[in-house]
Amino acid sequence: MGQSRFNQVFLAQRMILLRTLQRMVSNHSTAEDLLQDTYLRVTRALKERAIDHLEPFVYQTARNLALDHLRAQRIQGRTLLEDVPMEVLENVVEPQSSAEDATHAKRLLESLTASLGKLTPRQQKIFTLNRLNGLSYQQIAEQLGVSASTVQKELKLIMAICVGVASRHE
Questions:
Q1: Per-residue pLDDT tens listing for the chain (170 residues)
Q2: Same domain for 73 and 11?
Q3: Backbone Cα Rg of the chain
Q4: b/e 102-127 (16+ beta carbons within 10 angstroms → b)
């Protein structure tokens, strides 16, 4: 079976695959990305060898990519939480705090802003893409042309700076 047969199968099953991926990852744009990755992976596999049962292979490839994505998210979330000491997490100001707590939070935010302003432009971009836009290490790495490991190391450094600022305000 060749590429043209795969294109037919992919187009016929595209919406079902997309809905399946959306249910798995709970995010439409991520599901779209995974669907594109599925197409590329299967195309690459077809160039290397013949695939007898194309439709199940496509579904299994999509499922594996979704599971890899979920696993990476879980690891990323665990890594970032483990990098922040519990006392810092416990000292996050509640919405109904006293004026003293609000003043403390304002000073902390000003210090964090100043410290983050001293980061390199690449570090600021990594921080913004991850913390504000919610992009994964891999997505940021691809966008900036660096390795996912570099992104992870930079974020770890940035989080250490944030923790240092927070601990100075205790």
A1: 578 888 888 888 899 999 999 999 998 889 999 999 999 999 998 888 888 888 899 999 999 999 998 888 877 766 555 566 666 655 655 555 567 777 877 887 888 788 888 888 898 888 888 887 888 889 999 999 999 899 999 988 888 888 887 777 66
A2: yes
A3: 22
A4: eebbeebeebeeeebeebeeebeebb
| Domain ranges, residue 73 | 3-78
Residues 49 and 106 in one domain: no
In this structure, the answer to whether residues 74 and 92 fall within a common structural domain is no
What are the phi and psi torsion angles at 94 (to 5°)? Answer: -80, 155
Q: Cα dist. 116→109, 113, 140 in Å? A: 10, 5, 18
Write the CB contacts of 45 (distance below 8 Å, at least 6 apart in sequence).
51, 57, 61
